[in-house]
Structures are given as structure tokens and as C-alpha cells.
Target: HTH gntR-type domain-containing protein
Amino acid sequence: MPRDMPRDRRDDSELIEAIGRARAGSESRIRELLQSSPRRAHTLLRASIRRGLLGDTDQVEENELVLSMMMSRNSIRSALAMLGNEGLIRRRQRIGTNVVGSIFELPLLSLLPTQGWQVASETLEHPSSIRMESKLVEQSVVIAHEHVRSRLGIDTDRVMMREDIVSIDGMPVGVIVGYYAIVEQLASGEISDTAEYLDQLRRRPTTQYEATVEAVNSDERTAKLLEIKEGAAILTRETLIRDADGTALMIAYGHYRGDRVALWAEDKRVIAMKPAEDSAAA
Model:
């Protein structure tokens, strides 16, 4: 092979020859097999980090990724650059590329006790357990927005609002705001310890969780709490919880770092999607 060939082309040619020898394919056929999609490469590598296939301190070899993923070298390099910008890997000359960050996979249909919370690996198929710490940011009685009143099914104009920041391994990953229709109970003295009551409320047997997830840009205050740049992508989850009697217990909004949190759910009952009716036939 000519040594005056540019390094990138020489690497690709050597790679193609290696794949060809391993798979007994022609050079043109191997080139056809190599996918060219930085987005797909980035998605698969992020998923590998999230599920623990690539862990902290693991070395990431460009040639191995091209071979194992059958992706073009440019796609792999673009994907690694994106992961580097997200703080998940670190690339250093003459040292190599290492995984340095984690993506935390949290249950979609769950709420946090005010004193902290733990996800057990045997419960959610995580490579390791996740321990989240919760810290109160603000708690007060506020005017209930029409949307909150409608979702909670109440006609009172005030609700209890509690905002907590949650962290994993010292890293702030989410801000959770909950609204509760307990103002009258607080005024009458029926509820004396709000934190304890809210923990009990969140642990009560429920029959229905409703969750809606959106991707939005962070505002200045949320960005400061989560230690990210203003305008960075965050996941916003609205969760409505009803008890066994169908009474709405609370509505909560979780705001999670888009670069560090993934929301996970599993349901054995698959809802089949029906094809749209043919309007012409109707």
C-alpha cells in the first residue's frame, strides 16, 4: 500500500482490507456496507453508555467502532465529537478517548420521596443501583392555575407548591415541582409535618399514572439550579397521580438535564395502533 497516501485514506484502506479478509467481501461491497450517519452512530453510542456497555474509564477505539458498528470513519468521528461536547467522553492526543460521564436512566412513571430515593438494579435492569438525593428549594401556598385546578379536579383557588432539586453522585440532574390540594388541611392543623405527609401521599397505592414528556430549552433559573447553560435542552415531565378511588393526589413537573437523564418505562400490555380509516372509503 503506498505510504505517500494521506493518513485518513490509508487507515480506511487498511480497514477495508481487514474487513474484506474477515468477511471475504470485495472492497466495493465493503464500502457499500459502511453506513454514513453521524446521528445513528451518536444514538447507538449514547445508548451503550446509558446501558453500561461503555462505562467510566473505558477506552473508546475509533477503528474498533468502525468495525463493530459498520459505520464510516467520518460518522464515528462526528459522533465522538458530539459525545465530547456533551461531556460524556474525553479525547486526548497520544492518550486516547475515554468515557468520563454517565447517563442516568430513571423510571418514567414514578415520583421522588422528599427524603431521597433509590432505584434497585434488580428492579429496573440497571447495571447498578442509582441513589438520588433530594433537597428542598421552595415550599409555599400559591394561586392555583386553571390547568392545575382542572387536572386535580378542585375548585379551590390555592394549592401547596413544593420544589425540590435532585442530585446523583453530587450532580444536580432534575428540579421537581409538585402541586397538592392540601391548603385547608394545613390551615386546620390536620397536617403538621408537610414533608412527612407528602412522602406518605406519594407512597399510597395508586391505580393510575399519567405522564407526558416534552423537550424544551431551559430558562435562566432552571439552568442555574442544574448547572447547565441557559437554553440547554431539558426533559419536562408532567405526572398526574390518582389513588385507588380515582381521586387526583398531585400533579408534578420534573425538569431533567437532557444530557444526563433518560426516562424509562416498561409495560407488558402493548397497545396496538390502528391504521387510520380511509376517508375516501368512508
In short: The domain at 7-99 is CATH 1.10.10.10 (Arc Repressor Mutant, subunit A). The first helix runs from residue 7 to 23. The chain has ten helices and eleven strands.
